[in-house]
Amino acid sequence: MNKFNLNNSYKAVVIGGSAGSFQGMIKILSQLPKNFPLPIIMALHRLKHVRHGFVEALSIKSVVPVTEPYDKEPVKKGGVYLAPANYHMSVELGHTFALSTEEMINNSRPAIDITLSSCAYVYKDKLIGILLSGANKDGALGMKHITDKGGLTIVQEPTECMIETMPKSALAITKIDHVLKVDQIVEFLKELDKQYK
Amino acid sequence: MQDIDIADLKKITELIFQKYRYDFRNYAMSSFKRRVLRILELKKLTVETLLKKLNDTPGFIYEFLDELTVNVTEMFRDPGFWRILREEIIPGILLNHKQFKIWHAGCSSGEEVVSMCIMLKEMGILQDVNLIASDLDTNILERAKAATYTLKNMELNEKNYIRFQGTTNLKEYYTEENGNAVFDKSLLANVSFRKHDLVMGEVFNKFDLILCRNVMIYFNQTLQNEVLKKFHESLFKYGYLAIGSKESLIWCDYASRFIVVNNEEKIYKKIKD
Q: How far is A101 from chain B (nearest CA, A)?
């Protein structure tokens, strides 16, 4: 039954995505099991100077309302969080969010690498990292950090991606545990959810 | 990218505190770590050689501070914020005082200071306002005084100005020289630039409005509490404090001495001494 060989030791799921990831993200959020036990932390490339609209668009279909955390806001189990426009988003050791306005990385703010790497540092082998479609290499290094700390990594099946550069860049520099289509990622999260019930 | 452990970061902050009296011990860990890693990479140093350089090379601390502090800013960042200032906050201050004082705490390269002066000029009250712009980094203060920005950044600044709905064209306020936009110095006639460290520095004046946007995000909660206490003391009763759009005072000890006057743009008002 346990196709992905999962257990209930995980503490967080972090997801990165860029061009072509929106539909996949919507699918994942709309089919999320009720009372999903872990926080979902998303860093998605977005327009830097448009503060509104994106979180609302994700929330419409999502089982759990998506919020853009404030600096120092505690990470809650079951919360679904999106990195706000024009800020990098990290998680601190005390499991609170930290925002920053540092230089852009890979031409992006929020940068996926920053969110993924900080989560890898904090959650270590208790982290699941997912990287979806995108047109640049942001996120690849972050996925490597997750692997290096013993976390579990998933990239979207490149053939399914609107733009495959992002998952391919991650596959090129680190070991990825699963290469899955969005439907399989949904299945994966459902199975993960079962481990906690 | 190399990693750096907390023990090494502590060695660095302790050395800087003991030797130079800058206190980074309560900076937010995630960004502080990235800043130090960035310096190691930029200057081709290891933790050991960085410590040695900080200890042995006079003047290196200033280079270090300049790279450590985050100096990414824009003119009229969050145009909606500037519109609220112009249409609600400043008129509110003017009801009670014809002349007033503004503090830009952590002004960096001064884009917000220039924005403020342009806005006040367009409101016809620039001559009635006294501004203090402070930062702990002396190099960046020099850049703020020069009010000179690369033309490459002006595209975004101009877009922000248009969204702010200024009364003219941003180009009216600067001349182009060698790939730079050099702003009219008369705009800054009422601005005093001052080296001031929010962590170690004393309260030095009283203000009607303090702008400190996206600065306290680099501090941990303990330090935020201390700095907010200083801002509280530096404000007249019913004075305003503006912080970044994704910052919040709700986790701070002194939060109850303020009310939110604009939640979207995170503008607070001091209501209790």
A: 7
